[in-house]
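ok so I'm stuck.
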Amino acid sequence: MSTEQTFRPGLEGVIASETGISYLDVESEQIVIRGYDLIELSKKVTYLDLVFLLMNDQLPTKEERDRLDQELKNEYQVPDELLSILKMLPKQTDSMDALRTGISILAGFENELDDLSLEANRRKTIRLLAKVPSIVANSYHAKLNTPIIAPRSDLSYSANFLYMITGHVPSLLEMKAFDQTLMVYSEHEMPNSTFAARVIASTTSDIYGALTGSVASLKGKLHGGANEAVMEMLLEARTLEGMEMLINQKLKNKERIMGFGHRVYMKKMDPRAALMKEALLELTKEKGNKELYDMCVIGEEVMKREKGLYPNLDYYAAPVYYLLGIPISVYTPIFLAARTIGVCAHVIEQHANNRLFRPRVNYTGPRNLHP
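replied:
not stuck anymore, here's the structure
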């Protein structure tokens, strides 16, 4: 078979790795995480349970979960030098660029940076999971010249993360909704950012470098950023009537409607979006903002009718974040923070059974030229 016959633009459908971490079952549109259905996990356990599962191939006992929680809390504090550098970044610095910079700085404080053993990589994963939320939250505060918010060890992992962003201790419902967003963003087989991390890791580069590359990938509007665009669209629409009019106008202008369609989920709604739709309804009931939920439903109906497209995760995660009081510019960094465990799991797996990625090309240029 010739190179040209095997070429797939975007590597669509190409198997790039073998993994025991996760799998997207195209037929059932189920997201499998270490043998478990992600949506069922999101309804029955917490983000820390999922973290433990991804790191250890099994769900934790209560004692194991509590130990993981304490290990994370022991690593919450970030270096003062890092916070100082975040404050010195230009105020126009994109939030993802600030996050990328913060993770790179952390690498300089890592004593086990070049130790790629399973045990060292797991310890580094704990440190990253503990510190990335602080970088996400406080790079935002630094940009606005508002006070840095220190982590609170008396709160759960998810509650503390949300608290550091908003400055307010979340209610039980808010904490549950935010925890579910972390779970559904945590791992998704081999998207561009995870593949980028595995490619970097395959050179035997360290886990910080791989995660930094993942941030750079996720910054791209074709991968991350859709949740921000969705919320901006909802705010522009303002009303039920405005939402339908705005989407119809965008379709007329042949504009892309963010939050709809997915290369994997073609026949029905992204199951993660369905879960976030339920969370949004509960939040709107608590906060008395049912119109926001109704606007989303209107948009969903218009896109199904006009284009045969269904919502993906970003479409319903965006208004959930909005009702949680999270600034729009922080949506994509939260995506990366949640995905940190998934990316690190892939880096660990790559290091444990490594082969350097080195694909070939289908050359389309001239030959036999002479100077």
